[in-house]
Amino acid sequence: MNLSxxxxxxxxLVKRFPLIHKxxxxxxxxxxxxxxxxxxxxxxxxxxxxxxxIGASDGVKNDPIGDYLLSDSRYRxxxxxxxxxxACLLINNYGLTGRFTIEQVAIAASSxxxxxxxxxxxxxxxxxxxxxxxxxxxxxxxxxxxxxxxLPVEYDDIIEETSVExxxxxxxxxxxxxxxxxxxxxxxxxxxxxxxxxxxxxxIRPRIVLFERKHLNKKDQDAARGMMQNAGYQVKAMETDFxxxxx
Length: 247
Hints:
By secondary structure, the chain is α/β, with parallel strands linked by helices. It has helices at 3-14, 18-31, 35-42, 66-71, 84-94, 123-127, 144-150, 169-175, 192-196, 218-230, and strands spanning 49-54, 75-80, 100-103, 106-107, 112-119, 159-167, 183-186, 208-212, 233-238, 241-246.
């Protein structure tokens, strides 16, 4: 088990003790500053932080910044999640804050209706044994093979196909009247680079751009890094993501 995974597990265990959790996190970050520490540092003096989060899932499970968005009233914005059940979970988790709009759409090359694949919520019933669906909500994808890679062969029957609305980044920004973004977070299970290319960083310049790299091949990782560096960002591979900070 690597240090990052161990740290996340310890963090989850002590979250019920906020003062201890905060102290331990700050000690950890002194020696190993991660995404959360760098984000907190970048926005330390900001009073209003607009977030666009693409691929939000339920906004809590395996989300590196979810608790910040929930607990810190400075954060507001738009959370994008195409799978209807996950969008409902987002509403349940974030609705009471009154600070976020939930967009139940996928981001694609055109505005259309497309197919997405995800683990069925009644997976335990389909398999005839207990299955932790919550651990696999984050792998929903436009590519069925992406789910196949994450599941044992005998679990093929729990992959569900759903038709979802898709829009372009341009349409998403227009319909939500987004003129400026402070934090752009993309978690699209291998489609991060495809989505990232739709943004014009000459027009919209987030302070931080965070997107998943672990499902990108080396060619796409290099292209994404180069694009962000050319746009004026410092790019650092952190955990499973690229953390891009505007210079």
